[in-house]
C-alpha cells in the first residue's frame, strides 16, 4: 500500500513539474502533452522489454494483447484489465474501470465531458 502511495505522488509531481515549466514560458501546452507521452512510452517500452526477455515469441497480435491484459497489467497495476475488445477496424480497446492513475479525476464530474477512451492499435 505504501509503495502505491509513493508511486501516485511521484506520478502527480512529474505531471505537475512538466506543466509548471510550461507556465514559466519554457514550453507550450501541446509540447507538455508530447513530453509526457514520450516519457510514458519510454517507461512502458523498458518495462515490456524486461518482462518479455525470458518469454517465447508471441505468435500473433492476440497473444500480445493477452500478455498485456493478464501478465503485464497484473504486474504493474496489481489487477487484470477489465475488458478487452476489438472493433471492426482491428483496433484493440482495453478497459480498466478502476485505473488508479485516473481514479481521482473520475471522482469529480467537472472532467467528465473532457474524458475520452483510450484506443490502442
Automatic annotation (TrEMBL):
<dbReference type="InterPro" id="IPR037992">
    <property type="entry name" value="TRAPPC6/Trs33"/>
</dbReference>
<comment type="similarity">
    <text>Belongs to the TRAPP small subunits family. BET3 subfamily.</text>
</comment>
<protein>
    <submittedName>
        <fullName>Trafficking protein particle complex 6B</fullName>
    </submittedName>
</protein>
<dbReference type="GO" id="GO:0005801">
    <property type="term" value="C:cis-Golgi network"/>
</dbReference>
<dbReference type="GO" id="GO:0006888">
    <property type="term" value="P:endoplasmic reticulum to Golgi vesicle-mediated transport"/>
</dbReference>
<dbReference type="InterPro" id="IPR007194">
    <property type="entry name" value="TRAPP_component"/>
</dbReference>
<dbReference type="GO" id="GO:0030008">
    <property type="term" value="C:TRAPP complex"/>
</dbReference>
<dbReference type="GO" id="GO:0005802">
    <property type="term" value="C:trans-Golgi network"/>
</dbReference>
<dbReference type="Pfam" id="PF04051">
    <property type="entry name" value="TRAPP"/>
</dbReference>
<dbReference type="InterPro" id="IPR024096">
    <property type="entry name" value="NO_sig/Golgi_transp_ligand-bd"/>
</dbReference>
